[in-house]
Every structure is written in structure tokens, then in C-alpha cells.
Amino acid sequence: MKKANTSRFILFSWIVFICGYLLVGLECIERLPLYSSSRPHIVVIIADDLGWNDVSFHGADQIPTPNIDALAYNGVILQRHYVLPTCTPSRTAFLTGRYPIREGMQSFPLRTGEQRAIPKERKLLPEYLKDLGYSTHLVGKWHVGYYAPQYTPTKRGFDTFFGYYNGYVDYLNHTVSEDPESHAHIGNDLHRDKLEKLSPEFATGYLTDLITEEAEKTISMHNPARPLYLQVAHLAAHATGIDGEELQVRDSDDLNLTFGYIKDIKRRAYAGVVAALDESVGRIADALRKADMLKNSIILFMSDNGAQTEGLLQNYGSNYPLRGLKFTMYEGGVRGVACIYSPLIRKTSTVSDQLIHITDWLPTLYSAARGNARRLKNLDGVDQWDAIRSGKSSIRDRLLVNIDDDVGEESAIIGRYKLVKRTNTNYGNFYGDDGEDDSYPKYEPSDVRSSLAASAISTVSSGWLREGKITKLRRSSKVSCQRSTHFANCTESCCLFDIYADPCETVDISALYPKIVADLRNYVNGYRKVVVNQTNYSVEPASYPENFDGTWMPWLKDEDYFEDDDDDYNVAYQI
């Protein structure tokens, strides 16, 4: 009997050992860089300050965007995609998968030369994807901190970086000043960085085109056997000067010929900027086709926040009919334009009402890349890949829009109800053109079908999308509200909106539903214990470009790379 028990013990021990070995092996499979085409190529295209009404798939005729529309109609239109009110918080949320309140990055965006960044201990999306064997590249805007070398893109998970560190630059000469009004301390902010070297770049040309060309080159030079992560963060359609005076276009004559029907010359310039952005989307999709990568790719297109129709750095974009602007927590500021295309999505050509937050993209893309998102810890984002791919209901039913104690604002959503507290009522109306006028060229589905993006997509799909289907999808993605001149005042207290019945946030129903208000306030208050107060620092004189041969560069030493504090420091050329 004793001998039998001993034999059973030995057998059980071997089984435990073998199971443990297999589990460890499975975990290692995920951790090892697997250069396999089974992992999809991922391209994320981020527009800057693009308004809800500035893509034609949302129903307006004024500015046609056939390439963006082709992605939307052949993929999934994300109708309830929420972002943050401004660029630095949105990009922080996207890269970390966490609400920016946790990082002290939730309020006013980073100023040029400000000593603040996403904390170094925070792992970012490209770092997670590198664990899965991805080659990672950023083209365009950074804007989450660069005051020391360790905060620059190639020290935060990107293999290469071509773009600008600050919030915006001039479209033509790629410079930015410390103060947009005084134009003091103006310098170049275009860079071509690798892991071992941070280098100023002095390329000439229209920046939207330069970003597009760099994206095309990155795709064409990439080995398709290794999965690619390419983040294309455009300057378009951000203004680069006060009052939109420096919203430059590629060619004024072509602009007037193409968009002469838009009488407001500043709105016309904005249309030209958006048209160049749309062209870029088509060229990137076509580059994936040429490289034989589109069949195994995911293309996500989104705006970082709503348009800034009025106010500081206004760009004359339109969030109509949504209420509010960039910098506000109304829908016009935080309900962002978004769509996703991939041959890997099973249920395509749909308008999705799934509730999605920008923090969701880190676990979602990680899951799409065949990583185990359940192993990701301490995130606010949730894995939505299965819901998006299969058209299932979102696993999210609530989200924190933001807590900004610097200005005393907060907002959250649970289901159909949205709480807004003390948000900026100075910009709480309808803004921008409605995009509907008999003088505008009528929307033609055939223009979408003949676009560069649609042509590329047709090579990996079963055929062309029918014009009737395009018309139906466009009608379904249009938000309609009764025009109003009276809006609930949310400056002094809380407002509650039913954003299903009243997506334009005109009627405050807080008095009718005090229990729902209490639930939403309790939800917001639950996050207060993790809020890291944001401190906006003054611009550091040491950061001025005149200290670095006319270019904005990191200005502090980094202990990871510099051991001798007495050494001369010139990060512009070598680390």
C-alpha cells in the first residue's frame, strides 16, 4: 500500500512539473519577439483638432473626404468614440491606456518648453507591442513631454521618430515659438530620431506631405514578415497661429479653384488642410497595398479632440451639430471622429454605437496583435477587439470623461446619461458651419468608390461597396438635432443630459433624475483618490531654441545617459 502511494505521488509530481513547464512555455511564446505575419500590421492615423462635421461620412457636403469615408464605409464607423478635451490629455490616454488624471496630464496641454511629461515608469503602447515583436515608428506629433532625452519618442518604445515634439508647428517652415502671440523664441521643431541619436531635421515642404511621404517610406522599406506598428500623428487640422492666420495650405490657387464655393476664406483654408489630410489617408492605404500588407492590416483613424472653431488657436473647424468646442467637456469637444478598417473585421460596413474610450485602444490593439490583454494590469482601458471585430455589444457601459480641478470641471457617462459639471459655458453653443447649402457640390458615392483608399481596399475585399449602401451608412451616421439658441447653463452646477435622445445637450434633466445624478457623481468621486494634481510649469529659458542652434531640443541631462554632470551637453547630435 505504501509503495502504491509512493508511485502515485511520483506520477502526480511529474504531471505537475509537465503542466508547469507547458504554462511557462506558453507565457514565453507571447513574450518572445515572434516575427510572424500572423500578427497584423497596425497603422493609427491621428488627426489634430478635426471637427465632427469635417468628415463627409457624417453627412455634410461642404468638405468631401472620400478616402477617410472609404475606410469608414468598408470598416466600422465608431459613433460613440470618446476622447479628452485637448491634445496632451488625449495622447496620454491613448499611449498609456489610463485616464490622464493618474499621470497629472489631464488639464491644459503642454506648452512649448514646459518641464512636464508622461512619467518614465509608465509603459506605453509601442513598448507593449515591441514585446510582441513589432517594429514601431512614430511620424508626426509627440506632445507628451521631451524635456530630457528619456522622454523623447525613441526612448519610449518607438524605433524611429520623424516629427515634432511640441503641440504644433508651421506647416511650411516647421517652426514654433514659445508664445503664439509674441512669436518670441521661435525655432525649428522637426526631428529625425533613432534610439542612439536625436537629430534636428531641416526638410523643406508642406508638412502634411512630408508626414505622408515618411509614412509611405516606412511601409515600403518594412519587411512584411515582421509586424509593423506605425503611428501617423498629423498636424492637420491644427491652426499654427492666432486667429487662424497661419492655417497654411499647399497651394492657394488650387484651394480657390477647388473650394471657391466656401465664401469664408478661413473656412476655405481649413477645407484645404482637411483635403490634404484626406489625400494622406488614401496614400497610406495604397502604400500598404503596394507592400502586400493591407490584407493583414488594421487602420484606425481618429481625431484627438473636437475642432477649435473660436478662441485660442482657432482653426475654423466645425463640430456641428454637437455642442461645444475643444477645451470643453461637451460632446463637441470629446465625442471624436473615428473609424476602423481591417480585412480581419468580420462584420464590416456598420455604424457602431459601442461605447469606446481612447484608453481602450492600448488593450484593444494589443489583443488584435494576439497578445493576451488579460495580463495587462492597472489600465482604465478595456479590450474591445472582439466587440469591434464581431459587432458585439461593447463591454463598457460607463467612462470618465475627465476631472480637471484646475478649472473645476468634471464629466462622466453611464449608459445613455452624461453628467457635466461646471464646464466652460463661454464655448457651450453650436459652432461652425452645418455644411449644408444648395451651392455646395452634392455628395457623390462614386467619388468614394474611385478614391485611392477604396481602390486599395478593393484588392483585398470581395468587391466594390454599392452606392446604395454608402448612402445608407452616411444617413445612419449623421447626428440630427433641433437647432437651439437656448442651452442649459452648466457653469454653476451639474447638468444631466440624455445623450441618446438629446445628443446636442440642450436640455438639462438633472432635476428629473436626482438618483442618476447621484450615481454619476459617486462614480466620478470614486476616481478622486487617484487624481494626480497637474502642475503647469512656466516655460524654461534653458529650453529656448537659441541654446541649441535654433532647434527645440531636450534641455536637461538624463542620468540614464549622462554620468558626468560637468560634461558639455549637446543632445542635438549624439546621446
TrEMBL record:
Domain of life, source organism: Eukaryota
Keyword annotations from UniProtKB, A to Z: Calcium, Glycoprotein, Hydrolase, Metal-binding
One MF annotation (Gene Ontology) recorded for this entry: sulfuric ester hydrolase activity
Cofactor(s) the protein requires to work: Ca(2+)
Domain called Sulfatase N-terminal: residue spans: 40-369
Similarity-based family: Belongs to the sulfatase family.
Pfam family, one: Sulfatase
This protein's name: Sulfatase N-terminal domain-containing protein
